[in-house]
Amino acid sequence: MRVGIGFDVHQFSPESAGRALVLGGVVFDGEPGLAGHSDADVVAHAVADALLGASGQGDLGDHFPDTDPAWLDADSLGLLGGVTALVRDAGWRVENVDCVVVAESPRIAPRRSEMQDRLEAVVGGGVTVKAGRPEGLGALGRGEGIACVAVALVERV
């Protein structure tokens, strides 16, 4: 068995006006979107990095660089599916992933089950999503962006 840690953070910015906020593959209607090359889904990105780390395959930028126009506005669940295939092809199975979304808003709890279901369908293992508020501290506490930390456990097939 191996463990990996993933982290991602994206800011809200004027360039994200009109862009949907996507977290864990779930669209949060009425919320401002995050700036990023892909759809800026910090949850999917953190999960992908945790899985890549656990299976010893670098990070998300190694496989889907933000300098490549092919990934512009990409669906991050699709990227996560590609990562999951890499993990499987390397001889690993996803046991579970645990995530903490760090944000002042939106509230994660009402959409938690939906996020977990979408992520589990892609990674093929259990996924838990939790939320933590930064309590007004720093850029995240001022509502300038959203971050996510994920830990993944994989087992050799």
Give a written overview of the molecule.
With 157 residues, the protein is an alpha+beta fold. Helix content is 30%, strand content 29%. The protein contains 5 helices and 6 strands. The chain has a 4-stranded mixed beta sheet with strand order 1-6-4-5. Strand 2 and strand 3 (26-28) form a beta hairpin. Helix 1 runs parallel beside helix 3. The longest helix is centred in the middle third of the chain and has 14 residues, at 76-89. The radius of gyration is 15 Å and the shape is globular. The chain starts with a strand and ends with a strand. The mean pLDDT is 96.
* Radius of gyration over all CA atoms, rounded: 15 Å
- String of helices and strands: EEEHHHEHEHE
Strand fraction: 25-35%
Secondary structure tally: strands = 6
Major beta-sheet overview: 4 strands, mixed
Low-confidence stretches: none
Helical residue percent band: 25-40%
Number of helices: 5
What sort of overall outline do the alpha carbons produce when their principal axes are compared?
globular
Overall average residue pLDDT:
96
Structural class by secondary-structure content: alpha+beta
Strand order of the largest sheet: 1-6-4-5
Distance between the termini: 10 Å
Layout of helices and strands:
Elements: E1 2-11, E2 21-23, E3 26-28, H1 42-54, H2 60-63, H3 76-89, E4 92-102, H4 112-123, E5 126-132, H5 138-141, E6 145-156
Parallel strand pairs: 4-5
Antiparallel strand pairs: 1-6, 2-3, 4-6
Structural key phrases:
single chain; 157 residues; alpha+beta; four-stranded mixed beta sheet; two-stranded antiparallel sheet; globular
